[in-house]
Design brief:
CATH superfamily: Heme oxygenase-like
Shape: globular
Structural class: mainly alpha
CATH topology: Heme Oxygenase, Chain A
Number of domains: 1
Bound molecules: protoporphyrin IX containing FE
Distance between the termini: 51 Å
Largest sheet: none
Number of strands: 0
Radius of gyration: 17 Å
Length: 220
């Protein structure tokens, strides 16, 4: 029998997602690849290898989301202003011009398969949508600024962190959370969404672990 952790799922959906994934978020923040990257110790190949994996993830997520706009939960969060595939492609031209977009990555493959499976129920897809895009609009903004400073980029190669149609992330994120909360999911469905948010964080962690295995090859 599944025992529901009511302390988390009794909250409005957006708060349940945040509270329920705090430990996973903390782990993602402290991954060695991220620390090395933000410390300026990862070279161009190392960052391109990250972008190539993100490309797999966003391609799968954005395709699956577009195919499930009939689901009210997916429709509530969908916004083309968030889409990142074109930005990733443009950044790859900076970091790895002309490089083949194919990447050998069991972690990205596993993430893509999970996203495809999440198309079965909108709540699962929303969990992935939230984990990536709200992350990009939160800590991701700081990451973009640090990268820019560390590599003295002057904006080049950081389109991934720029949301030209979302000038102020804070009110955007507040409105996004309000749309999640207005879905009024049952306690059981909130628990399913929160579980999938945790899965999404672990899939991101696995990307970092995979990249971390090659950290010596990425030294600059
Ligand atoms: C060095 C890495 C990271 C740092 C420094 C960081 C930092 C932060 C900070 C400061 C916030 C709160 C922003 C606010 O209050 O609006 C935040 C929120 C968030 N982060 Fe991260 N983060 C990192 C990595 C990640 C990763 C890898 C993911 C998932 C892929 C992620 C997903 C999220 C999400 C979903 C939120 C929104 C939480 C909510 O308000 O519901 N973060 N992050």
């Amino acid at each position: 029998m599944t025992v529901l952790d009511r302390s988390a799922v009794d909250l409005p959906l957006s708060a349940a997602m945040r509270v329920g994934s705090m430990a996973e978020h903390e782990a993602a923040e402290h991954s060695s690849y991220m620390s090395e990257l933000l410390g300026g110790r990862v070279n161009e190949t190392g960052y391109a290898d990250y972008l190539l994996r993100l490309r797999v993830v966003y391609d799968a997520m954005e395709t699956t989301v577009r195919a499930r706009l009939d689901d009210p939960a997916v429709a509530a969060v969908h916004d083309t202003a968030l889409e990142r595939l074109a930005a990733i492609d443009s950044d790859l031209e900076h970091w790895a011009p002309g490089r083949d977009r194919e990447v050998v990555s069991p972690a990205a493959d596993a993430y893509r398969e999970r996203l495809a499976a999440a198309g079965a129920w909108g709540g699962l897809l929303v969990a992935h949508h939230y984990t990536r895009y709200l992350g990009d609009l939160s800590g991701g903004q700081a990451i973009g600024r640090i990268l820019d400073r560390t590599f003295e980029l002057d904006g080049a190669g950081t389109a991934f962190y720029a949301f030209p149609e979302i000038p102020k992330p804070k009110p955007y994120k507040d409105a996004y959370r309000a749309r999640l909360d207005a879905l009024e999911l049952s306690v059981e469905d909130v628990a399913r969404v929160v579980d999938e948010v945790k899965v999404a964080f672990r899939l991101n962690q696995a990307l970092f672990t995979e990249l971390g295995q090659n950290i010596d090859g990425y030294r600059r």
